[in-house]
């Protein structure tokens, strides 16, 4: 473990829970696992929680590396085993219960304190390489810096954007008139659609299924593909988009119109809706689900699910079936259904009928693993609190004929370890932006009420 360019990364438990194979992400540098981290993984692995699976994967990964190592080799560090410029560093386990006297800054009553003490010990002992504490716990990072640790970092290997303002909004707003900028272009009619071909220099950085709007009241389009310096887009027409309806709901602005276009297109298998509270994400998704399930018969059922804090413990104590247990967590959906049917003479009767007719099911994210969901409209609400791996678990459940709608507000993250740039919602927006089967729309503007709009802008 020599070399001034090498670093020693001391990993906190939450890093291994966030990504169990994270030890391979540090390339040629060295990884140190404090004994306290193994103890915490051991406590977590037997809980009836989704995170327990990640703890078990992390433990098995460490066992695969250390199974033939002697105690002396484990303390000194063993090679991670991957070459070719990947993980060619070493990994060691260090006992943090009995550090030499004088190195402990904090008392060792808490696990976090013992891990920080270990990082401080390595910083003093090994001047030949940097000691870097890696944790997703913001408060722990502050404590470590306050205790004198020079290098403290968040784990960011899954971070695709450095600033949330750089995140793709799913549309490109062009100043003035788009057609004045283009001039002549090649056009072709396919059925009821008109498809134009222009030079991709006009729209640098455009991606598939990105919407195009300008300052006029008549132009709107969606990019179909890019190839050989050419960009093809379908002419949607702003007036036509604003006139579309789903289950009696009509868009109130162009952003809702773009979202509705993506939601009602069966060829787009995943729609990602982001935006502030009250912009219409859930309302548009639910209206589209009913329209395409009941009116058009494209899907057989609607599954509604969301991330629920501490769901594993609390779902068992609520009375009733899984749907009834999930009802308190999915009150936003039932509120939306009431809005859609508030004009009906007997709203309760209408809701009961619609719930049966559309076969609307409320499911827990925990029970989605291992399923294969076919011919279903899946609405995954509150995605901002999910990690990339949790979203992958749900997305890979979707089989043939299934449409997935992921909605969330990056300003309302409740997770202890996620920020807007590390949220799974941000991750999938970036990862799927060039996939022809997905579309992403940021719904600008609060449509819920004058009060909600003022609060969003001024509080």
Automatic annotation (TrEMBL):
> Ranges for the PIN domain?
7-142
The residue range of the signal peptide is: none
An example Gene Ontology molecular-function term: ATP binding
The record's section on Gene3D superfamilies has: 5'-nuclease (3.40.50.1010), P-loop containing nucleotide triphosphate hydrolases (3.40.50.300)
A GO CC annotation given for this chain: cytosol
One Pfam family recorded for the sequence: PIN_4
Record's keyword terms, sorted: ATP-binding, Nucleotide-binding
Q: Which family does it belong to?
A: Belongs to the PhoH family. In the N-terminal section; belongs to the PINc/VapC protein family.
PANTHER family reported for this sequence: PIN DOMAIN-CONTAINING PROTEIN, PROTEIN PHOH
Protein name, as recorded: Ribonuclease
């Amino acid at each position: 473990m020599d070399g001034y360019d090498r670093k020693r990364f001391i990993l906190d438990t939450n890093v291994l829970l966030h990504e169990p194979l994270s030890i391979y992400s540090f390339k040629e540098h060295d990884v140190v696992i404090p004994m306290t981290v193994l103890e915490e993984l051991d406590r977590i692995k037997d809980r009836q929680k989704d995170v327990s699976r990640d703890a078990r994967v992390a433990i098995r990964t460490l066992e695969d590396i250390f199974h033939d190592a002697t105690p002396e080799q484990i303390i000194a560090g063993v090679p991670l085993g991957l070459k070719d410029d990947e993980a060619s560093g070493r990994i060691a386990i260090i006992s943090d219960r009995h550090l030499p006297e004088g190195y402990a800054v904090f008392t060792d009553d808490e696990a976090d304190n013992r891990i920080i003490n270990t990082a401080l010990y390595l910083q003093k002992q090994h001047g030949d390489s940097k000691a870097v504490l890696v944790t997703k716990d913001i408060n722990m990072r502050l404590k470590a810096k306050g205790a004198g640790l020079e290098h403290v970092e968040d784990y960011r290997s899954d971070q695709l954007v450095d600033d949330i303002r750089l995140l793709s909004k799913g549309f490109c707003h062009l100043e003035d008139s788009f057609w004045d900028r283009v001039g002549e272009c090649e056009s072709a009619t396919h059925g009821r659609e008109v498809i134009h071909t222009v030079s991709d220099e006009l729209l640098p950085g455009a991606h598939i299924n990105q919407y195009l709007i300008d300052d006029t009241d008549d132009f709107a389009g969606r990019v179909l593909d890019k190839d050989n310096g050419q960009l093809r887009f379908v002419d949607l027409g702003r007036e036509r988009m604003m006139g579309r309806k789903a289950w009696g709901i009509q868009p109130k602005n162009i952003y809702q119109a773009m979202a509705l276009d993506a939601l009602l297109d069966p060829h787009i298998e995943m729609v990602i809706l982001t935006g502030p509270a009250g912009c219409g994400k859930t309302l548009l998704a639910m209206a589209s689900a009913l329209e395409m399930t009941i009116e058009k018969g494209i899907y057989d059922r609607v599954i509604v699910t969301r991330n629920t804090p501490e769901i594993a413990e609390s779902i068992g104590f609520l009375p009733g079936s899984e749907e009834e247990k999930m009802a308190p967590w999915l009150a936003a959906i039932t509120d939306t259904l009431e809005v859609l049917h508030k004009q009906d003479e007997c709203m309760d009767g209408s809701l009961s009928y619609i719930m049966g007719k559309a076969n609307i099911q409320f499911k827990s994210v925990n029970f989605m693993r291992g399923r294969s969901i076919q011919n279903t409209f899946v609405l995954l609400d509150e995605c901002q609190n999910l990690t990339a791996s949790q979203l992958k678990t749900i997305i890979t459940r979707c089989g043939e004929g299934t449409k997935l709608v992921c909605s969330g507000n990056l300003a309302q993250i409740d997770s202890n370890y996620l920020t807007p740039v590390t949220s799974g919602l941000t991750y999938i927006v970036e990862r799927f932006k060039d996939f022809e089967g997905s579309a992403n729309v940021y719904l600008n503007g609060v449509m819920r009420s004058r009060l909600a709009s003022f609060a969003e802008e001024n509080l």
